[in-house]
Design a protein that fits this description.
Largest sheet: 10 strands, mixed
Helix content: 25-40%
Shape: globular
Number of strands: 21
Number of helices: 23
Radius of gyration: 31 Å
């Protein structure tokens, strides 16, 4: 290991006395004789054989979490099968072609949308909905079940207008409905369901006041099949009083607190201590009160929730069986029961392991889930001689997660530390205190013996000791740097794990992937191109926010870094990564940390054209003016104030135009555009917005005039 012997003879820098006992040399370690240390690399990254897309698929486990919708094509790009397993070869969509169409300037035939970018695939949404209904239809037929399934989509998962409208349209043949948990969600659901199946349920969950209940009752008068679910016992009085005032007879459901629950984060909202639901005593109290007011026939639905991401079918069967017993008891007590709503919980496989013991995975598919529900309800009802109820589920995550992909760019990366030795390294090491020099000698002796574990211990001990002495003023900055250089050199020479690089991404995690920060939820993240090339870097991802939590350093395979490509090796544009399976919750939960707004959005449908896809909607992300207005600032007044200051300094109109342009740009970084002398983006296509109609502001004068006319 020659590098350890290449320390220059110690030459004292100005201001330091030269010690007479140092000969300027470090011991030369003998050839490493121990076992090969773990380098921290993924096993697939060790071979020297040619790389392939199959190896990338294995490295990122694409087939595990992505089937049947995502795969790597022969060009090394992530691609989408919009119709799942039924997708024909000519219908497959190259994700890089979609990104190119969305982000290229209008002058080049693109849409001019800035990154980050959400790409929605409504065809995938349709396939998920059809697959869920097909699974239940098969289970009903296979088990001789005496009723049918008709689910609802909980709009809280993603309230985007076009997602909800798509689901209502796609679900009409299946009597598929919606679930609302607040007054604005109820208004949204009422409006959308006027175009849906008249038999579709509108399930009203959440806390309710008189206005909420009145809205739900009014919806029944316009032909919507609305059910008011009691989350708390006291809500019954509100329902009874409001129904009498409005003159509309309600259809009532109740949510039961089951004993069944699962462990982990997603099970914390279930069980006897869950946030919502009625205990057995409260259920009996509700039945008694409804009987007293001669409204027991209004009670028709039983709802429960075991918890999101139910990990296995054994737990599911246990919970459904318990709920079915309650359903049968309510029937025995005289209620006109006809529906069991099994709630949410149908999980997806984020890490592709098909494991039943993790929040990141589930040990079943749609078919197993449906069969378990049908069999559990049928068995209990047959035992009690009760007619089989209509089956309903509130499966939001499983419906919308796959149809949305978040695309973002890595714009820079930290560089590996140089192996060049600092001048006078030996001198500064000799200036260490006695205890630090003892650590240094032990470190070098361990290196000579090839004892990696002991080397690591002494290196950490030496760095910690010297850091404390630096804080006490006993060592200078040069001493601290010399110790860091030595420890880095030793680690590399003995074959320790190669350094993890930091990749800076044009994204706010708090806005676009809030669950990663808030609850540690992991999503599949990987490059969407160059997957026919071997990744040579282990990296972590750092976002744009001024927050130390704004980083991704945990990934679905349990590793603390992600295999990536060298940015310097990327030709013909930027380096794009995708976050998959994030279509549920992330957009609704995202905040405005550092005033970074939401991404641009495109809606892409499969077509028979030359590129196999059509962009049916394109919307730019929130501008600086948009996010400022969301925090009660008034961009038009801000601009006027800045314009007056520019006039006071006699700087000319160009500066005001540049500021106006900044108000209309997205808060994210812009690359690949020309900068004016003011340092602002001068190519309007680099930051201009594209709406559904394709309009935008194509020159600074128009933007300035528009800025003046902003309406709060």
């Amino acid at each position: 290991m020659p590098a350890l012997a290449c320390v220059d003879a110690a030459v004292p820098p100005p201001g330091y006395a030269f010690p007479t006992t140092w000969d300027g040399s470090l011991p030369v370690p003998e050839p490493f004789s121990g076992s090969t240390p773990d380098t921290g690399l993924h096993p697939l990254l060790h071979p020297t054989s040619p790389w392939s897309t199959d190896l990338s698929a294995s490295l990122y486990n694409v087939d595990g979490w992505g089937a049947p919708y995502f795969y790597i094509n022969s060009a090394g790009n992530m691609s989408v099968r919009p119709h799942g397993a039924a997708t024909l070869p000519h219908q497959q969509l190259d994700l890089m072609k979609v990104v190119k169409k969305a982000t290229e300037p209008k002058s080049a035939g693109g849409l001019g949308l800035p990154l980050p970018l959400i790409v929605r695939f409504p065809d995938v949404l349709r396939d998920r909905l059809e697959s869920l209904n097909a699974a239940f239809e098969f289970a009903v037929q296979a088990n001789g079940y005496g009723s049918h399934y008709q689910g609802v989509y909980p709009v809280k998962c993603n309230q985007d207008r076009y997602i909800v409208e798509d689901l209502v349209e796609f679900g009409a043949p299946f009597r598929f409905g919606l679930e609302a948990g607040s007054k604005p969600e109820l208004l949204l659901a009422m409006s959308c369901l006027t175009k849906g199946s008249p038999d579709a349920f509108l399930v009203c969950n959440g806390y309710k006041d008189e206005e909420y209940v009145a809205l739900a009752l009014i919806s029944r008068t316009i032909g919507i099949n609305t059910v008011i679910v009691l989350e708390q016992e006291e809500e019954l009085d509100t329902v009874i009083e409001t129904s009498r005032r409005v003159g509309v007879k309600p259809v009532i459901g109740l949510r039961a607190k089951l004993r069944t629950k699962h462990s982990g984060h997603f099970g914390s909202t279930s069980g006897e201590k869950g946030k919502f639901g009625l205990t057995t005593s409260q259920i009996l109290s509700v039945v008694s009160k409804l009987r007293q007011v001669e409204m027991l026939d209004c009670l028709q639905l039983l709802h429960f929730h075991i918890g999101s991401q139910i990990p296995n079918t054994a737990l599911l069967a246990d919970g459904v069986s318990e709920a079915a017993q309650i359903y049968c008891e309510l029937t025995r007590l005289g209620a006109s029961m006809r529906v069991i709503d099994v709630g949410g919980g149908l999980g997806i496989d984020y890490d592709g392991t098909h494991s039943g013991g993790s929040d990141l995975s589930v040990g079943y598919g749609l078919d197993e889930y449906a069969a378990t529900v049908v069999q559990a309800v049928r068995y209990v009802c047959d035992q009690k001689g009760v007619r089989h109820p209509v089956l309903c589920s509130e499966s939001g995550r499983a419906l919308v997660s796959h149809h949305s992909v978040l695309i973002f760019e890595a714009f820079s990366a930290s560089q590996p530390a140089s192996l060049e030795l600092r001048q006078n390294l030996a001198y500064y090491l000799d200036q260490l205190t006695d205890d630090a020099r003892a650590d240094y000698r032990n470190l070098m002796a361990s290196a000579v013996q090839g004892d990696y574990d002991t080397c690591n211990v002494y290196a950490e001990q030496l760095k910690k000791r010297c850091a404390e002495q630096f804080k006490d003023g006993m060592l200078g900055l040069e001493h601290l740097a010399a110790v860091d250089d030595l420890c880095e050199l030793v680690a590399r020479e003995i074959g320790a794990a190669k350094p993890v690089r930091e990749y800076h991404i044009n994204l706010s995690l708090f806005t676009s992937i809030p669950d990663l920060w808030a609850i540690g939820q992991l999503f599949p993240i990987l490059p969407i191109h160059h997957l026919d090339q071997r990744p040579g870097v282990d990296g972590v991802l750092l976002d744009l926010t001024c927050d130390s939590d704004g980083k991704v350093d945990r990934f679905i395979d349990g590793r603390s870094s992600l295999p990536l490509h060298e940015l310097g090796s990327i030709e013909g544009g930027g380096y794009y990564l995708g976050m998959f399976l994030g279509g549920a919750y992330q957009e609704a939960l995202g905040g405005l940390h550092n005033l970074f707004g939401g991404p641009s959005v495109v809606r892409v449908s499969q077509s028979d054209g030359p590129h196999c896809f059509t962009v049916t909607r394109a919307v730019p992300g929130a501008s600086c003016a948009d996010v400022l207005r969301a925090m009660q600032h008034e961009p038009e007044l801000m601009f006027d104030s800045l314009k007056r200051r520019i006039e006071e300094y006699s700087l000319g109109d160009s500066k005001a135009c540049a500021i106006s342009h900044a108000f209309y740009s997205m808060p994210y970084l812009v690359y690949g555009t020309h900068l004016s002398g003011d340092g602002m983006v001068s190519d309007s296509e680099g930051s201009s917005g594209v709406t559904e109609e394709g309009s935008g502001y194509d020159d600074d004068d128009d933007e300035w005039d528009m800025m003046r006319c902003l309406s709060v």
